[in-house]
Write a structure and sequence with these properties.
With 135 residues, this protein is an alpha+beta fold. It has helices spanning 43-52, 65-76, 85-91, 96-103, 106-119, 126-134, and strands at 18-20, 36-38, 54-57, 60-63, 77-79. The protein is globular and about 50 Å long.
């Protein structure tokens, strides 16, 4: 296969959905932790999530990192279905972001955000880059 042919869409290696245990709180009938499915998103979708996490202020543009990573998780998690009304009703919340925040402990949510970023090709998380910029 020539060099150019290797870059054609039909020859691109497909990235499979990754399984991840977000919390030991959720178990199946056999007592095993339930796995969550995380998939990648496109750059176009990522840009839309970034825009949703950015607001204009009188001092300029403000990017909300926590909002971005939460929305990124929601965009990438295919199972459980965070948009399922039955699941949201179970936790007494409305919306996938609010549901995710309610389902997991703070540390679990933090680790999930890191995993989602890794699945999407970030070798350093946004948090690492922010800390590096501060120094």
């Amino acid at each position: 296969m020539g060099t150019l042919a290797g870059f054609l869409k039909e020859n691109r290696k497909q990235i499979k959905t990754e399984k991840y245990v977000a919390s030991p709180q959720f178990i199946d009938e056999d007592g095993k932790p339930l796995e969550w499915d995380i998939q990648t998103i496109t750059c176009k979708k990522d840009e839309a999530v970034r825009k949703e996490s950015t607001k204009q202020t009188k001092n300029g543009t403000e990017f909300d990192y926590d909002k971005y990573t939460l929305k990124l998780c929601v965009a990438c998690i295919t199972s459980p279905n965070l948009n399922a009304v039955e699941l949201q009703n179970s936790y007494g919340v409305m919306g996938a972001e609010e549901l995710l925040s309610e389902m997991l402990l703070p540390g679990e949510l933090h680790r999930l955000k890191i995993k989602v970023q890794e699945v999407n090709g970030y070798t350093e998380t946004m948090n690492d880059l922010v800390e590096e910029a501060k120094n």
